[in-house]
Amino acid sequence: MITCKSKKIASSVADLVFPPVCPLCGNVYHNESSLFCSDCMAHFSFISSPFCHICGRPFMSTEGTSHICSSCILSPPPYSHARALGHYDGALLDAIHFFKYRGDMRTGEKLGAYIAAWAYDTQDYTGYDYVIPVPLHRKRLRERGFNQSVILAKQVAKKLSLQLDIGTLVKKIDSRPQVGLGRKHRKRNIKGVFAVVSDKKIDGKRLLLVDDVFTTGSTVGECSRLLIRHGAEEVAVLTLART
Ligand SMILES: [Zn+2]
Ligand SMILES: [Zn+2]
Questions:
Q1: What digits encode the pLDDT tens for the residues 7-36?
Q2: Which of the pair, 4 or 203, is modelled with greater confidence?
Q3: β-strand 163-164 against 130-133: which pairing, if any?
């Protein structure tokens, strides 16, 4: 039986022979808990307060405290709150592109472990039932070979000791990519493309929806609305980055 201690020793020996290499720049680095090497981490911008309590949008001014933004007051989103690890630029943007478009699974796994640890340390998801990744249409899944949100959601579920559900929410229509579309068109493009396979599983449940990037919130908004319409008590959103 491999114990936790012997696993640790084995991984430190492996680190000596094959030291961890930063997935972004190729530099060798020794802080395994860090996402990238210190040079790359210098180009990483975390989202910090003040931000909107609901949609998580950071405010322009770094002064003051977090509160609810005017757009969430005027038109409250269907999710209870959305949180993102960092801004979609610099090292995080590079890492997401490596993972999503070049299929670099090592970076994907690292991002997953990192967001899971961050969610565990900074948010309270006590009482939530399932972690649900934003699904891909089966045609896209065949082309890409993986769903980036599933890779992230798996690690989030494990770290938060919640169940992972990848079958209840599906994408039934292969909509055109949201990239390059404005807010209004994004909303229209994503409307009605998802479906809930079984209401029974999510009835009265609190769900954590996981996606890679929060742009205008149209995708997570559409998924949340649908999950709530099918009986979910609450949907919270967690993403790696936001624009
Ligand atoms: Zn680096
Ligand atoms: Zn807001």
A1: 554 445 445 555 678 878 888 877 767 788
A2: 203
A3: parallel
Q: Which domains does the chain have, with CATH numbers?
A: 44-242 (3.40.50.2020)
CB 68 within 8 A of CB 53: yes
Residues having C-beta closer than 5 Å to ion ligand 1: 22, 24-25, 27, 36-37, 40
Enumerate residues with CB within 5 Å of ligand 2 (an ion): 52, 54-55, 69, 72
| d(CA 53, ligand 2 centre) in Å | 7
pTM listed for this prediction: 0.88
- In tens, the pLDDT along 96-133 reads 999 999 998 988 998 999 999 999 999 999 999 999 99
Residue 200 makes CB contacts below 8 A (sequence gap 6+) with none
C-alpha 12 chain-centroid distance: 29
